Amino acid sequence: MIFLLIVSFIGIILLEVPGLVKKKMWRELVAFSVYLAIGMALSIPQVLGIKVPNPSKAIEALFKPLAELMK
Amino acid sequence: MLEQGKIDSRQAILLIISLVLPTAILTVPAITVKHAAQDAWISIIVATMAGLLIARLVTDLSLRFPGKTLFEYAEEILGRVPGKVVGFLYIWWFLHANALIMDEYASFLCSAHMPDTPVIVFFILGIAVAACAVRNGLEVLSRFNQLFLPLFLGLLLVVFILATKDMKVTRLLPVFDKGAIAILKGAATPASWLGEIVIFTMIIPFLNKPKEAYRVAALATLFTSFYLLVSILVAIMIFGPNVTGHWIFPTYNAVRVVSIANFLERMESIAVAVWMFGGFAKVGVFYYAAVLGSAQWLGLKDYRPLVAPVGVILVALAALCENIVELLDFLATAWPPYALSVFEVGMPLVLLIVALARGKGGEGT
């Protein structure tokens, strides 16, 4: 599983990065890297079986007073 | 300009229908019927009014800034830093909503059709297909949608007509049994779905006739509400409010009971085809909004490099959802205040008021 995930990340990098470097789009390259890093940070722990906090839970807690009205 | 494509009014109407309808007929009926029982159809009418007001608000705001999307004029209205904050929140909302849409779809396919297939397969396939469409731009997405949506809407209507054999109008009685509060609670969820028209702010700049935006938004909302109303009425008139409220996918079950002369039956395959397509289109529009929004927010020259990483984030976010009961509970209780009060009404209203007060933007048409 983790192997497949890393292969797909490498695939995405090979697909996008050479074109960006060739066209000297550095800003785009930085944005691409940051987004991909967020994606990795969310997906690799899940594959390894580490619990990642679910943002829906945080939103549920934040809107609890209003959500109570909907019960 | 990040996006060179232009779409016409008809494509825009169909795109907005795809933006709201697919998951609306999948998950909304159960939630609304749970609150309002046989009066759920009144809830939908109330929600339609709210939806039309949101559509009007969003269009008013967008037309003051011709050729600009939400992310560009938020900065112009509020100033650089607050505008960036608003933009960030919208990017988050587009991603989170999209992950929830993926969850709704994948859990529908898993629980109703392919119980042995791991749920991650649906996430990856769905996102991969949507990513191709998004990479090719808005024009490709809307042409694809224009080609298939009318066919599927027609098929769905035929299936509903075939289901009339098992309907009893008396199951809608007594009217107003649950009272106004229950009806309003039932209206909150469909209203938050119709409010997803906020994404229209990302599409208006690419209309070839922006003046028709009001008509586009209103027609699309009415059309969506009509289908939502029919699907709720079909479910209630076939099963009654108690059974409908306890099912996860009442419309799907309603389609399943169609049987004409022991010959024309198992129509659910048509419904599943409609939902598969619709889910892809809906995910595609949200995906497009998130990617284009991110590119404008970061001041990039091209949005395409972001398509693949955003897809990874979407799959990872969607995979966080543990089960369908948790998901439906979130959609029934936390989602309406979260989406409706902040992103669909709150922020657009604040933006419009500040724009009027500071005299930003054109007169609006």
UniProtKB/TrEMBL annotation, chain A:
Organism lineage = Bacteria, Bacillati, Bacillota, Clostridia, Eubacteriales
- Which keywords are on file for this protein? Membrane, Transmembrane, Transmembrane helix
Origin, by domain of life? Answer: Bacteria
Origin species, per record, is Desulfofundulus thermosubterraneus DSM 16057
Q: Which residues cross the membrane?
A: 29-48
Protein name stated in the entry: Uncharacterized protein
Q: Does the keyword Transmembrane helix apply?
A: yes
Automatic annotation (TrEMBL), chain B:
Q: Which UniProt keywords apply?
A: Germination, Membrane, Transmembrane, Transmembrane helix, Transport
Q: Where in the cell is it found?
A: Membrane
List the GO cellular component terms: membrane
- The molecule here is called Spore germination protein KB
| TM spans (from-to) | 12-34, 40-58, 78-97, 117-134, 146-163, 183-204, 216-239, 272-294, 306-325, 337-357
**Signal peptide (from-to):** none
Q: Which Gene3D superfamilies match?
A: Amino acid/polyamine transporter I (1.20.1740.10)
Report which superkingdom the organism of origin falls in: Bacteria
Any Gene Ontology biological process? spore germination
Name the protein family.
Answer: Belongs to the amino acid-polyamine-organocation (APC) superfamily. Spore germination protein (SGP) (TC 2.A.3.9) family.
InterPro entries, from UniProt?
Answer: Spore_GerAB
Origin organism is: Desulfofundulus thermosubterraneus DSM 16057
Q: NCBIfam families attached here?
A: 2A0309
Q: How does it sit in the membrane?
A: Multi-pass membrane protein
